[in-house]
């Protein structure tokens, strides 16, 4: 997935009201940027960090910049736009670039299922069980190479795990696919100290047959793409 316009480097002055960020561009101009992330963004929203923003000239948009990336140590990057993982997965599923799901020929998004829910993707194919796929954005890191989910309490996320377990009970495949939007990780575990309910729900879902998949990303100032699979620790 390529960014629509070239990104500009900036400094984060502060994030406020969840969806707004005060920034300073390299030419000294200060502006307010849209922050496309409702989560806590633990470790990624400290004043003074270097970020990358996407400018726009759309007259319908009040804010002329969108925050997209955070610079990390040693040349690494983190993506903060929570809409990107679903776009990456859609591209990868349709191109057959997720090995464990590559056999599916038909991919549909936002299909109703469960109890008043919509699954991110439903994958179907001749002779294959239907695969219900939920996608989660991950960008929390507190230990070397380890990505963690979630970064705050998510009752909605726990509900998705329960819905997927029901699909397994009905004879379908169910997949929780975690997309790590940072380039300095190589594995995933669950942040039980931040949301013990979700960590327990993940173990329960796994034991009922829900598949836990995780893929990393390649991130630069031009594009974000899905990369290799990472191991998921259930302990």
What are its keywords?
3 helices; alpha+beta; globular; six-stranded antiparallel β-sheet; 235 residues; 17% helix
Sum up the overall morphology in one term: globular
Q: Main sheet: which strands, in order across?
A: 3-2-1-4-5-6
Count the strands?
15
Low-confidence runs = none
Radius of gyration equals 18 Å
Structural class: alpha+beta
What is the residue-averaged pLDDT? 96
Order of helices and strands: EEEEEEHEEEEEHEEHEE
- Helix count, DSSP H or I runs of 4 or more residues: 3
- Tell me the strand percentage band: 35-45%
Beginning-to-end CA distance, first to last residue: 33 Å
- The residue fraction in helices comes out at 10-25%
Largest sheet: 6 strands, antiparallel
């Amino acid at each position: 997935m390529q960014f629509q316009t070239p990104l500009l480097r900036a400094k984060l002055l502060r994030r406020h009201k969840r969806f707004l960020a005060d920034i300073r561009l390299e030419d000294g101009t200060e502006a307010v940027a849209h922050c496309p992330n409702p989560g806590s963004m633990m470790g990624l929203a400290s004043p003074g960090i270097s970020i990358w923003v996407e400018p726009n000239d759309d007259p319908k948009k009040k804010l002329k910049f969108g925050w997209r990336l955070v610079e990390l140590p040693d040349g690494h990057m983190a993506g903060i736009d929570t809409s990107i993982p679903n776009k990456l997965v859609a591209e990868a599923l349709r191109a057959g670039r997720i090995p464990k799901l590559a056999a599916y020929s038909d991919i549909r998004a936002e299909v109703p299922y469960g109890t008043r829910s919509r699954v991110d993707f439903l994958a179907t194919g001749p002779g294959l069980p239907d695969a219900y796929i939920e996608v989660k954005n991950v960008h929390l890191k507190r230990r070397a190479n380890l990505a963690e989910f979630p970064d705050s309490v998510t009752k909605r996320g726990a509900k998705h795990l329960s819905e997927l377990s029901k699909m397994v009970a009905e004879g379908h495949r169910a997949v929780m696919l975690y997309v790590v939007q940072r380039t300095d990780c190589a594995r995933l575990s669950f942040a039980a100290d931040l949301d013990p309910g979700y960590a327990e729900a993940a173990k329960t879902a796994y034991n009922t047959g829900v598949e836990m998949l995780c893929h990393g990303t390649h991130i630069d100032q031009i594009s974000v793409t899905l990369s290799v699979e990472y191991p998921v620790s259930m302990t």
